[in-house]
Amino acid sequence: MTCSDIIKDRARTLGFDACGVAAVAPIDPDDCLGAWLARGYHADMTWMAATKDARQDITRKLPGARSVVVVARNYFAPRPPRPADSGRVSRYAWGRDYHRALLKPVKRLADAIRSLQPDAACYISIDAGPVLEKAWAARAGIGWLGKNSLVLRPGLGSWMFLGVVATTVALEPDAPMPDQCGACRACLDACPTGAIIAPGVVDAARCIAYGTIERRGDIPDDIARRMGDWVFGCDVCQDACPWNRDVAPTTDPDFFPRPGRANPDLAELASLDEHTFFDRFRGSPLVRAKCDGLRRNARIARRNQLRDAELAGPDEAS
Fold first, then answer.
1. Of residues 130, 293, 134, 147, the one with CA closest to residue 211
2. Which one of 127, 179, 254, 265 is the catalytic residue?
3. Which of 121, 139, 243, 304 could disulfide-pair with 157, CB 3.0 to 4.6 Å?
4. 127 in active site
5. Which is it for strands 144-145 and 151-152: parallel, antiparallel or unpaired?
6. Residue stretches of the chain with pLDDT short of 50
7. What pLDDT does 314 receive?
8. How would you label 70-102 residue by residue, b for 16+ Cβ within 10 Å and e otherwise?
C-alpha cells in the first residue's frame, strides 16, 4: 500500500466520499485568475485580488509544499415541500456550516499525513484560505471543472464540499479526470441572469449567489427582477446539470435540511431583527448574508412573486 493509498483509506474512514492527490506545480500557468480579475468579474470581492499571488502559489502558504490532498463530501438532499409565500435557499446552506462540519475530519486527515513523515508540515483550507480549491480538485482527479465553474464528479455531480490539505510530504499523485461536459450547455442556458458568460467563466456581479450573499446594499434592478424567490444563494445552474441527476442523498446529518432553512417564510425573513437573526441562523452559512442582506432578499423575492402572480393572471395564479 502506497502512502497515497494510506491517506485515501483514512479519508474513507473519516466519511469523505472522494479523495485525490496532486503534485505541487503551478496551478494557474495561463493566469486565468488574473484575466478574470482584470475584467472585474470578482465584483466587490476585493480579497480575491489582494490574495491573487497566494492563490496561484500554494507554497506562499506552506513553503516546501510538495503535495495537495483534496477530499469531497456529498451534501445533496431533496428539497422539502415548499409552503406558500416561502423563499428558496441554496442546498449547501440547509444544514450546519460546512466550514465547521468539515474542520475536524480534515484536521484528522492532516494528522494522518503528518504521521507518514516526522518533520511533515500541513496547511488546511476549507473554502476559507487563499487556495484555488476547485483547480486543485481537478488536478487531483476529484472531478473536472464544469461549464458553470463547479467541480463535477460522476455519482456526486457538483453537490460536494471540498477540503484541501497541502503538505510537505511527497505523495503519489492521481491523474486528472477528463472533461465530460461535451457539447452540453444546460447550465449556461438556465442561468436567469446570464452570469455564466462563457464556459467556466462566471461574472460574479450578475450571479444571484453573489448578489444574495456577498453584495452589500442595493441589488441592481435588472438582477433583482431575475432573482425569482432566491433569498440565499442559487442552485439553478446545478439543478440544470445532467450530472446532478440521480445523486444519492448525503448520509451526513450535519447537512440534512433543518426546519425553516430550505424554504423560509418571506414575511418572517423580511421582518427579522438582529437578535432573532443570530439566534435562528447561528452555526449556519446564512449568517454570511447578514441580517440586512436577508431582509433585502426577502423583500425582493416577495416583490417578484407578486409580479409573477399578476402576470400569470387569476387562473394560473390560483
1. 293
2. 127
3. 243
4. yes
5. antiparallel
6. 317-318
7. 64
8. bbbbbbbbeeeeeeeebbbbbbbbbbbbbeebb
